[in-house]
């Protein structure tokens, strides 16, 4: 069975005293995550740089105590690295496939972190009702920006932010999909880079603020109902 290599020294700066937990998560990705098809076998050698740290550095864009919804979470990316790097965040992972939900639940139980997992899709009305009003929605390798904005922006409060972890073609995607993003209630999308000096190259994130609803009016902030959940 493959065992993930030791974390790079900079990982301690990102995870602090939770570095051992991040190491256990990386091990899950490289073993059961591969066995159960959540990541490809060729990814095991670069679990830290390409997956764990690449996602965790996006935490620098998230305000303290934010409520975060991670859509299409898959192997828990970026939601679990963010939860490990930032224990102040309230994070829920939204994932439609049961086998992935099961794996996420097992990993979260092992790490003993207060992250919720829900089986569903961001565009489903029941999911929106439960998790609307988030401060931040995150996504990685889920869908093109135009489609992702249509799913993610309704989950945000007015002024909340979509953070889409993207690749090298992010600028082209922004140029192509900016109009569709605005129609979905988003502001002007912009490309930002995170983790300089930690990951090389730095992580590329497309940032979109929710400024209106789909019809072009001001988006009202939903009533807070999360306090009723534990």
From TrEMBL:
Keyword S-adenosyl-L-methionine: yes
Subcellular location: Cytoplasm
Stretches of the chain forming a coiled coil according to its record: none
This protein's UniProt keywords: Cytoplasm, Methyltransferase, rRNA processing, S-adenosyl-L-methionine, Transferase
Biased composition (Basic and acidic residues): 211-221
Region annotation (Disordered) ranges: 211-230
A family per Pfam: GidB
UniProt xrefs under SUPFAM superfamilies: S-adenosyl-L-methionine-dependent methyltransferases
Protein name: Ribosomal RNA small subunit methyltransferase G
Gene3D superfamilies assigned: Vaccinia Virus protein VP39
Protein species of origin: Pseudonocardia acidicola
């Amino acid at each position: 069975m493959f065992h993930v290599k030791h974390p790079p020294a900079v990982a301690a700066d990102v995870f602090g005293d939770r570095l051992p937990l991040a190491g256990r998560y990386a091990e899950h990705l490289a073993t059961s995550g591969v066995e159960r098809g959540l990541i490809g076998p060729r990814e095991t050698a670069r679990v830290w740089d390409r997956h764990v740290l690449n996602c965790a550095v996006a935490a620098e864009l998230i305000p303290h105590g934010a409520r975060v919804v991670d859509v299409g979470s898959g192997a828990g990316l970026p939601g679990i690295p963010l939860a490990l790097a930032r224990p102040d965040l309230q994070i829920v992972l939204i994932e439609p496939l049961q086998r992935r939900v099961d794996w996420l639940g097992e990993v979260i139980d092992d790490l003993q972190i207060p992250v919720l997992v829900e089986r569903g899709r961001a565009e489903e009305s029941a999911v929106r009702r439960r998790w609307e009003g988030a401060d931040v929605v995150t996504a990685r390798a889920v869908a093109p920006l135009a489609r992702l904005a249509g799913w993610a922006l309704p989950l945000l409060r007015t002024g909340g932010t979509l953070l889409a972890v993207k690749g090298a073609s992010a600028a082209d995607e922004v140029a192509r999909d900016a109009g569709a993003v605005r129609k979905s209630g988003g502001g002007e999308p912009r490309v930002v880079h995170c983790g300089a000096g930690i990951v090389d190259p730095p992580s590329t994130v497309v940032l979109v603020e929710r400024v209106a609803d789909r019809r072009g009016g001001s988006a009202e902030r939903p009533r807070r109902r999360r306090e009723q959940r534990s």
